[in-house]
Write a sequence for this structure.
């Protein structure tokens, strides 16, 4: 039996289905992230786990104990679930100083004063807040505010930590730093993390497993590598990284880019179980090789330096293809003719 | 020399000087004259006299009453305002949005008309409720005597609590709901969250609303004038009125008035300073994050009782007085029972078409409000523009003068205007409509400045700069870019002045002459003269005008929003 268990969860807001028949199992100590564009139902799912939203259908249980059930009309109130939670907007209380912010959940639990002080100081130590004990949140930077929120949620040593886009209000550099800190805290305390984000690189860096959602419907669950290399559908492929989708035609058993049949065929075959009239070839810009000869002939239309990487826009017939190459690899100028070799490509049905 | 200086002035300087001049003449000099008259006798600084005036039994009583009333009204308005604000924004009370609108209705009703209605309902002998209860249960005396400090506090509270309600419900709605959610997930129940998180975070808004109530109550004329003077209860504004009215403008009376006025201005200044200080306290910034629906407290079994309490509150404080005014306004004689046979529309016809006094009053109020609203709106736009947009040396003078109108109560303005425009400085406007117009402009300048500068702050500097960069002159940029963009703010300012001016009482009651009664003054004097029924009829007309006016504003402002 998994640790956090969601069974056939459905949530509606008026006529809109926010989450549709979602079933997931999250293991103890796992870092599980929910990824998707805004409005995909990931935050709603997290809020249902936290107990802020009732369920229209389904059950949620944690560690074998029923927390929410639409069938039994039973909902354990959020304050009794013993979770830690960090919000996107920090949600640190401006009228309490750092110590009192972090100590709040302990004070609620009627622990002895000495123990509160000890556990609060510990939590502040682990999050690098030790010297700000008496400061007020408005005197601190946004990174420090988010650390208060983190310290507050680890102070009670929760079994499950819910993170609602905790990094998206931070600047990019701080964001990367905090990723590691969260991961370190998890190693130290061993809590289970359920993490909501719309940033695929954040999900990749932190998670043991990623769940991709779209319009309230589960798309794929897998390890970061698995989701990146074998996206279950075209939507996931495009959401998870830069992507090219090329319409193709099949002639005499060979595959050509549509409208560029004279430029040469693609050195690949459509898997026999996927054959249909309309297929699309999906390929990451970094997985296309630029060669002097041998492959699909194309013309360099635009070339942009992005530091270490060169970003090419290349025309094969009337189809634009994006290619990103290391600065040191073969160099082409705008207007040059080149040949494309598609390395790792995937096939999807045309929508 | 001077000519060269004037030639070297740019448009900025010209506008600055003009704005300063207007504020100085309209507001600053009258207020200065009050302080001067209060502090100096025959050109000599004289404190003994001030102490003497303040230690007179009746001025001292007035001061004490003002404070008692202000404290009482502030306390009850805060309790009621916070409670209803919390109810409509943090619970699952049914019909919340409708209730929210209804709680704002007392704001647009003139409180002295409310006082009039309560006098009709609860005056000790002839009040309808007192009579009904005495008749039904057959006991001597009355249920509640509205002619008392308690009565004044109760009626003022009914009309002033929306100040707190608006502040607090606004703050509750803007507050980031995750502040409460994170307390919940930390293990706190709703009672603990309300006590330890929500209330402390709301404290600045609560205090700001409460101070506003205190400010208004301290300087409030209408309710104590109708419910207090009859039994000798005076507060500062009614005492000033009584002195000036009785003595027909003798210097001793004016001096007492100016001393009391100076006290009003100073306390208003202190209150406003305290308020801006509290609102600026940065660590209470709680507005952030994506908006989610806040945690709503499920009232469960309390739902129906609390809804009934809210509806009853509205019925008793808004509907009952309004109906009373309308019904009494149709009676053939005051004190008759409400039967169809005792009612007539003749009263309405009489005050609208036959009686010179009321016809004049309606006409006077109408054109005075229109003129005041128009002039004040334009001047306010000019001054706000200089304050908000212009970089010019000496602006701080204007900024200081711009705050002044906010802290000068209506009674003080009237007195200052009397000192300035009754011939002492070569212009005598006393007993003419002009003196009322000047007073209205001074009184409502604050509204115009607030509305206009809010609109101007929305217009980013770069919009005007872009126009200049395209080759427009300063004037063209103003005319084609800035003015069209702030037009909604100007229109709002116009109506913010026009409607209150239409029912103004506090200032005009000190300034009216034989032919320059306004609607407010007419209602007040009719009531004083025992013409209760005609007072009620005229009050019903005023109420209809106010409600129609409010609906028109709503229409106009809404269509503006849609257009943008």
């Amino acid at each position: 039996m998994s640790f956090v268990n969601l069974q056939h969860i459905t949530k509606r807001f008026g006529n809109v289905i926010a989450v549709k028949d979602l079933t997931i199992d999250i293991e103890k100590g796992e870092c599980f992230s929910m990824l998707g564009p805004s409005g995909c139902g990931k935050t709603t799912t997290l809020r249902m786990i936290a107990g802020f939203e009732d369920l229209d259908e389904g059950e949620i249980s944690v560690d074998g104990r029923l927390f929410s059930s639409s069938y039994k009309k039973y909902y354990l109130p959020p304050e009794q679930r013993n979770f830690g939670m960090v919000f996107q907007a920090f949600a640190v209380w401006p009228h309490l100083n750092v110590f009192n912010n972090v100590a709040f959940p302990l004070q609620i639990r009627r622990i002895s004063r000495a123990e509160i002080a000890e556990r609060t100081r510990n939590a502040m130590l682990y999050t690098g807040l030790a010297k700000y004990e008496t400061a007020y949140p408005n005197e601190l930077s946004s990174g420090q505010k988010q650390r208060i929120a983190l310290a507050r949620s680890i102070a009670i040593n929760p079994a499950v930590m819910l993170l609602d886009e905790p990094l998206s209000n931070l600047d990019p550099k701080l964001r990367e730093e905090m990723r590691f800190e969260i991961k370190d805290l998890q190693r130290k305390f061993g809590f289970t993390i359920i993490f909501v984000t719309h940033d695929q690189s954040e999900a990749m860096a932190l998670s043991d497993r990623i769940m991709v959602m779209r319009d309230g419907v589960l798309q794929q669950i897998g390890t970061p590598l698995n989701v990146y290399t074998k996206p279950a559908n075209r939507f996931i492929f495009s959401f998870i990284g830069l992507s090219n989708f090329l319409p193709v035609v099949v002639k005499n058993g060979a595959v050509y880019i549509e409208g560029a049949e004279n430029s040469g065929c693609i050195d690949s075959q459509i898997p026999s179980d996927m054959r249909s009239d309309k297929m699309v070839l999906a390929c990451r810009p970094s997985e296309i090789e630029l060669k002097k000869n041998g492959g699909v002939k194309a013309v360099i239309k635009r070339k942009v330096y992005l530091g270490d990487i060169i970003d090419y826009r290349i025309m094969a017939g009337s189809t634009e293809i994006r290619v990103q190459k290391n600065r040191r690899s073969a160099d082409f100028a705008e207007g040059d003719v080149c040949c494309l070799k598609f390395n790792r490509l995937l096939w999807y049905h045309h929508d | 020399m001077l000519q060269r200086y004037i030639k070297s002035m740019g448009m900025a300087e010209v506008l600055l000087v003009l704005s300063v001049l207007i504020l100085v003449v309209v507001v600053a000099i009258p207020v200065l004259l009050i302080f001067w008259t209060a502090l100096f006798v025959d050109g000599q600084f004289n404190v003994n006299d001030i102490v003497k005036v303040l230690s007179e039994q009746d001025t001292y009583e007035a001061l004490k009453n003002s404070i008692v009333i202000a404290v009482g009204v502030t306390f009850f308005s805060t309790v009621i305002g916070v409670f209803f604000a919390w109810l409509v924004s943090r619970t699952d009370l049914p019909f919340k949005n409708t209730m929210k609108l209804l709680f704002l209705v007392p704001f647009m009703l003139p409180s002295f008309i409310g006082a009039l209605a309560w006098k009709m309902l609860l005056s000790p002998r002839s009040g309808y409720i007192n009579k009904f209860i005495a008749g039904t249960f057959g006991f001597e005396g009355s249920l509640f005597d509205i002619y008392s400090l308690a009565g004044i506090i109760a009626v003022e509270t009914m009309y002033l609590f929306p100040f707190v309600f608006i502040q607090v419900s606004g703050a509750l709605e803007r507050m980031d709901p995750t502040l409460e959610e994170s307390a919940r997930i930390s293990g706190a129940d709703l009672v603990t969250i309300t006590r330890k998180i929500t209330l402390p975070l709301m404290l600045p808004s609560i205090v700001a609303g409460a101070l506003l109530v205190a400010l208004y109550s301290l300087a409030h004329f209408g309710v104590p004038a109708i419910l207090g003077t009859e039994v000798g209860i005076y507060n500062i504004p009614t005492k000033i009125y009584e002195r000036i009215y009785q003595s027909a403008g003798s210097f001793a009376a004016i001096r007492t008035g100016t001393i009391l006025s100076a006290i009003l201005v100073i306390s208003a200044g202190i209150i406003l300073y305290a308020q801006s200080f509290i609102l600026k306290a940065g660590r209470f910034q709680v507005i952030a994050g994506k908006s989610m629906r806040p945690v709503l407290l499920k009232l469960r079994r309390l739902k129906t009782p609390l809804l009934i309490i809210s509806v009853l509150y509205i019925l008793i404080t808004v509907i009952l007085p309004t109906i009373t005014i309308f019904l009494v306004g149709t009676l053939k004689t005051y004190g008759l029972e409400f039967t169809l046979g005792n009612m007539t529309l003749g009263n309405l016809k009489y005050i609208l078409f036959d009686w010179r006094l009321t016809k004049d009053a309606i006409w006077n109020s109408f054109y005075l409000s229109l003129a005041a609203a128009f002039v004040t709106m334009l001047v306010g736009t000019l001054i706000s523009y200089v304050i908000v947009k212009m970089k010019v040396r000496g602006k701080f003078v204007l900024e200081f003068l711009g705050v002044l109108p906010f802290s000068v109560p209506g009674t003080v303005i009237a007195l200052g205007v009397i000192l300035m425009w009754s011939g002492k400085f070569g212009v005598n406007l006393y007993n003419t409509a002009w003196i009322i117009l000047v007073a209205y402009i001074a009184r409502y300048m604050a509204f115009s400045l607030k509305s206009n500068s809010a609109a101007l702050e929305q217009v980013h500097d770069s919009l005007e700069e872009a126009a200049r960069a395209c080759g427009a002159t300063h004037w063209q940029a103003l005319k084609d870019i800035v003015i069209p963009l702030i037009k909604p703010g100007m229109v709002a300012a116009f109506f913010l002045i026009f409607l209150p001016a239409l029912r103004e009482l506090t200032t005009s009651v000190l300034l009216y002459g034989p032919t320059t009664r306004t609607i407010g003054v007419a209602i007040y004097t009719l009531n004083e003269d025992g013409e209760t029924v005609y007072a009620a009829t005229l009050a019903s007309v005023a109420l209809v005008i106010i409600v129609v006016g409010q609906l028109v504003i709503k229409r106009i402002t809404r269509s503006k929003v849609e257009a943008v």
DSSP finds 24 helices and two strands in chain B.
